[in-house]
């Protein structure tokens, strides 16, 4: 489905209920599988979370997680500790290009049996679950936090818990802290001192309902809309000021892009600041790489430059996001350059209209470019890809006054 997106609305007003955080939901789904007396509320309705849930409750030998990278990492660790269970983990053609070797080698340190069925270091993989008594793992600190969280989530069910030593400078600390905070909410004892993380074993947890906060990555597109509109007041639920999610850094980042955020009753309201003086921004996004696409598109729409760093993990996401951004922004008339871990956009006041934005099977490409419709009509190719994390995205934009129409290829 190709979607033509445009609006004559320069004044955006509305209230949006955003689906629960995919990051929190997938962690809690795994914990619920380990401790079945946990109940969950406000879970994500994303494709990724549905795939995760299906895999956890199913008994199939072949587990196909399609494009869901988080599910691949988390489930690899989960099935590794399921004594007597043997599965083949596979996914889409892109998933079979995304590395899993770091996690497999970490699990091998615990004595887990995992073998590659095609190319070494990549899915599909065969996992033979077993009882684990080893408890010490060493891992490079600059890897995707999902590898680290996968190990931490299963750690309470290891006979002797887990002592994880991270070598080098740690990246994506907020996501690691989110995982530890969820474990602590279940009264599972943890510690994080220096480069050593410990999770202590726990056979059972108390019965408890865990309420998932709404997804901050999904909120980023509304921050972008507010920055690009003339006047706005958009209220989003359900959010808290002291969030576990790293992308809550949006509040301070977008303050530098003219957006003021206030919190009340588990809702946040975004308002455009009047007479704001915009200037080139330099953001280090080591802890929040998923919002880089949103920010660079916002800057293009505002006619300002930006220099974003700490983006090395974007090259192994649903697509090589840095290269995809370079290609699509260039179509729009942007002057953009990328390296292995950074992106630089030169200020311009010209945006080419009616450009077709390729989405590369990447939900964030589709949603990050959508706010530009406030400036020029834009065509989003394969717009249905948003279902990966935010199935109601186009409906919510329509409720804010955007016009969407399906067009041919």
TrEMBL record:
<comment type="function">
    <text>Catalyzes the transfer of the enolpyruvyl moiety of phosphoenolpyruvate (PEP) to the 5-hydroxyl of shikimate-3-phosphate (S3P) to produce enolpyruvyl shikimate-3-phosphate and inorganic phosphate.</text>
</comment>
<dbReference type="GO" id="GO:0009073">
    <property type="term" value="P:aromatic amino acid family biosynthetic process"/>
</dbReference>
<comment type="similarity">
    <text>Belongs to the EPSP synthase family.</text>
</comment>
<keyword id="KW-0963">Cytoplasm</keyword>
<feature type="binding site">
    <location>
        <position position="27"/>
    </location>
    <ligand>
        <name>3-phosphoshikimate</name>
    </ligand>
</feature>
<feature type="binding site">
    <location>
        <position position="290"/>
    </location>
    <ligand>
        <name>3-phosphoshikimate</name>
    </ligand>
</feature>
<feature type="active site" description="Proton acceptor">
    <location>
        <position position="290"/>
    </location>
</feature>
<feature type="binding site">
    <location>
        <position position="145"/>
    </location>
    <ligand>
        <name>3-phosphoshikimate</name>
    </ligand>
</feature>
<protein>
    <recommendedName>
        <fullName>3-phosphoshikimate 1-carboxyvinyltransferase</fullName>
        <ecNumber>2.5.1.19</ecNumber>
    </recommendedName>
</protein>
<dbReference type="Pfam" id="PF00275">
    <property type="entry name" value="EPSP_synthase"/>
</dbReference>
<feature type="binding site">
    <location>
        <position position="69"/>
    </location>
    <ligand>
        <name>phosphoenolpyruvate</name>
    </ligand>
</feature>
<keyword id="KW-0028">Amino-acid biosynthesis</keyword>
<dbReference type="GO" id="GO:0008652">
    <property type="term" value="P:amino acid biosynthetic process"/>
</dbReference>
<feature type="binding site">
    <location>
        <position position="144"/>
    </location>
    <ligand>
        <name>3-phosphoshikimate</name>
    </ligand>
</feature>
<feature type="binding site">
    <location>
        <position position="388"/>
    </location>
    <ligand>
        <name>phosphoenolpyruvate</name>
    </ligand>
</feature>
<feature type="domain" description="Enolpyruvate transferase">
    <location>
        <begin position="53"/>
        <end position="397"/>
    </location>
</feature>
<feature type="binding site">
    <location>
        <position position="364"/>
    </location>
    <ligand>
        <name>phosphoenolpyruvate</name>
    </ligand>
</feature>
<feature type="binding site">
    <location>
        <position position="321"/>
    </location>
    <ligand>
        <name>phosphoenolpyruvate</name>
    </ligand>
</feature>
<feature type="binding site">
    <location>
        <position position="172"/>
    </location>
    <ligand>
        <name>3-phosphoshikimate</name>
    </ligand>
</feature>
<feature type="binding site">
    <location>
        <position position="146"/>
    </location>
    <ligand>
        <name>3-phosphoshikimate</name>
    </ligand>
</feature>
<feature type="binding site">
    <location>
        <position position="146"/>
    </location>
    <ligand>
        <name>phosphoenolpyruvate</name>
    </ligand>
</feature>
<feature type="binding site">
    <location>
        <position position="22"/>
    </location>
    <ligand>
        <name>phosphoenolpyruvate</name>
    </ligand>
</feature>
<dbReference type="GO" id="GO:0005737">
    <property type="term" value="C:cytoplasm"/>
</dbReference>
<dbReference type="GO" id="GO:0009423">
    <property type="term" value="P:chorismate biosynthetic process"/>
</dbReference>
<comment type="subunit">
    <text>Monomer.</text>
</comment>
<feature type="binding site">
    <location>
        <position position="317"/>
    </location>
    <ligand>
        <name>3-phosphoshikimate</name>
    </ligand>
</feature>
<feature type="binding site">
    <location>
        <position position="22"/>
    </location>
    <ligand>
        <name>3-phosphoshikimate</name>
    </ligand>
</feature>
<dbReference type="InterPro" id="IPR013792">
    <property type="entry name" value="RNA3'P_cycl/enolpyr_Trfase_a/b"/>
</dbReference>
<comment type="pathway">
    <text>Metabolic intermediate biosynthesis; chorismate biosynthesis; chorismate from D-erythrose 4-phosphate and phosphoenolpyruvate: step 6/7.</text>
</comment>
<keyword id="KW-0808">Transferase</keyword>
<dbReference type="GO" id="GO:0003866">
    <property type="term" value="F:3-phosphoshikimate 1-carboxyvinyltransferase activity"/>
</dbReference>
<dbReference type="InterPro" id="IPR023193">
    <property type="entry name" value="EPSP_synthase_CS"/>
</dbReference>
<feature type="binding site">
    <location>
        <position position="23"/>
    </location>
    <ligand>
        <name>3-phosphoshikimate</name>
    </ligand>
</feature>
<feature type="binding site">
    <location>
        <position position="98"/>
    </location>
    <ligand>
        <name>phosphoenolpyruvate</name>
    </ligand>
</feature>
<dbReference type="InterPro" id="IPR001986">
    <property type="entry name" value="Enolpyruvate_Tfrase_dom"/>
</dbReference>
<dbReference type="InterPro" id="IPR006264">
    <property type="entry name" value="EPSP_synthase"/>
</dbReference>
<dbReference type="InterPro" id="IPR036968">
    <property type="entry name" value="Enolpyruvate_Tfrase_sf"/>
</dbReference>
<keyword id="KW-0057">Aromatic amino acid biosynthesis</keyword>
């Amino acid at each position: 489905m190709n979607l033509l997106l445009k609006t004559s609305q320069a004044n955006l007003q509305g209230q949006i209920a955003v689906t629960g955080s995919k990051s929190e939901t997938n962690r809690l789904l795994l914990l619920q599988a380990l401790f079945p007396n946990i109940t969950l509320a406000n879970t994500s309705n994303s494709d990724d979370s549905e795939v995760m849930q299906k895999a956890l409750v199913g008994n199939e030998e072949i587990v196909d997680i399609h494009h869901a990278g988080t599910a691949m990492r988390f489930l690899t660790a989960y099935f590794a500790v399921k004594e007597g269970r043997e599965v083949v983990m596979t996914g889409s053609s892109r998933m079979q290009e995304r590395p899993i070797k770091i996690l497999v080698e970490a699990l091998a340190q615990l004595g887990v049996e995992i073998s590659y069925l095609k190319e070494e270091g990549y899915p599909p993989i065969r996992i033979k679950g077993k009882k684990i008594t080893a408890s010490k793992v060493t891992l490079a600190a600059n890897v995707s936090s999902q590898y680290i969280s996968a190990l931490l989530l299963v750690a309470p069910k290891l006979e002797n818990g887990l002592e994880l030593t991270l070598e080098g400078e740690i990246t994506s600390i907020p996501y690691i802290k989110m995982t530890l905070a969820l474990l602590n909410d279940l009264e599972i004892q943890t510690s994080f001192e220096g480069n050593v993380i410990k999770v202590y074993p726990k056979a059972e947890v108390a019965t408890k309902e865990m309420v998932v906060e709404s997804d901050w990555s999904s909120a980023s597109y509304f921050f972008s809309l507010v920055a690009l509109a003339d006047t706005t007041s958009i209220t989003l639920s359900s959010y808290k000021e002291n969030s576990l999610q790293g992308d809550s850094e949006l509040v301070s980042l977008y303050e530098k892009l003219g957006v003021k955020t206030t919190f009340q009753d588990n809702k946040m309201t975004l308002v455009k600041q009047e007479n704001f003086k915009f200037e080139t921004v330099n953001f280090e996004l080591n802890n929040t790489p998923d919002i880089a696409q949103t920010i660079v598109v916002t800057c293009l729409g505002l006619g300002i430059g930006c220099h974003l760093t700490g983006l090395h993990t974007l090259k192994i996401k649903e697509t090589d996001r840095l290269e995809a951004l370079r290609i699509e922004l260039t179509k729009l008339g942007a002057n953009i350059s990328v390296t292995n871990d950074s992106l630089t956009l030169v200020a311009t006041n010209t945006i080419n209209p009616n450009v077709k934005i390729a989405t590369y099977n990447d939900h964030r490409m589709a949603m990050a470019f959508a706010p530009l419709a406030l400036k020029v009509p834009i065509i989003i190719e394969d717009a249905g890809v948003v279902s990966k994390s935010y199935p109601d995205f186009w409906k919510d934009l329509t409720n804010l006054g955007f016009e969407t129409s399906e067009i041919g290829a």
